[in-house]
Design a protein that fits this description.
By secondary structure, this protein is α/β, with parallel strands linked by helices. It is built from 10 helices and 6 strands.
Length: about 220
């Protein structure tokens, strides 16, 4: 049995894809920078600042960190405005409720603190988490394991006693590097084959596969 479960947010607990992409595109429009939605989707989970850097490099647009900071701020404002359209994935609340009281629970998201604090309040799930960490509390983006290791530290649980629930290749890689268990869920943009390539311990189609998820965590 694991002692703690660390959940990702975007694409794992909440179906934020459209809101995230739209908020990036709104910020980029002001700089007259064009990039495909798919480019952004494949980078969800690596942090807004790093995603903007990649977009501007790819688009051959000169930038400095002041511009990145401005774009991130615009993206945060836009995403908060769009948050009312964001649903939790089916099975998310039921799974969190089933785990609460049995293990420690953390939310570890590479989204920004203002967005996460707003969304978990709007969707009424803040009550489930003992610890909430965001991009604002770490220096390195996934696939670096920093955010998961800091979550374990704040939970006061050894990394090898934690299991991560993730939808992205970056997140699975970070979990495995942190020596944590990992459940990959096919609710993001990655295929089963892509996720299996980075060796999660379990792959499920959705959070509605509660019995299988609980069996792995609480075995």
């Amino acid at each position: 049995m694991f002692d703690a479960v660390i959940f990702d947010w975007d694409g794992t607990l909440a179906d934020t894809r459209q809101a995230v992409v739209a908020s990036f595109q709104k910020a980029l429009k002001e700089k007259r920078c064009t990039i495909s939605d798919a480019f952004i989707e494949r980078r969800i989970g690596t942090g807004a600042a790093e995603t903007f850097r990649e977009i501007l490099r790819t688009s051959k647009v000169h930038f400095d960190e002041a511009l990145i900071k401005s774009l991130v701020s615009k993206k945060i404002q836009a995403e908060i405005k769009l948050s009312s359209s964001v649903p939790l994935f089916k099975g998310a609340v039921e799974l969190l409720a089933s785990l609460q009281g049995k293990v420690r629970l953390a939310l570890a998201s590479m989204n920004n603190r203002a967005v996460i604090d707003h969304m978990i309040k709007v969707l009424n799930v803040q009550r489930f988490f003992d610890v909430v960490l965001t991009m604002d509390e770490v220096h390195n983006s996934k696939p670096d394991p920093e955010i998961f290791l800091k979550s374990a530290l704040q939970l006061n649980v050894r990394p090898d006693r934690c299991v991560v629930v993730e939808d992205s290749v970056f997140g699975v890689q970070a979990a495995k590097t942190a020596n944590m268990g990992c459940i990959a869920v096919l609710t993001g943009v990655y295929s089963r084959e892509e996720l299996e390539r980075v060796n999660p311990d379990l792959v499920v189609d959705s959070l509605t596969e509660k019995d299988e998820i609980l069996k792995f965590i609480l075995r």
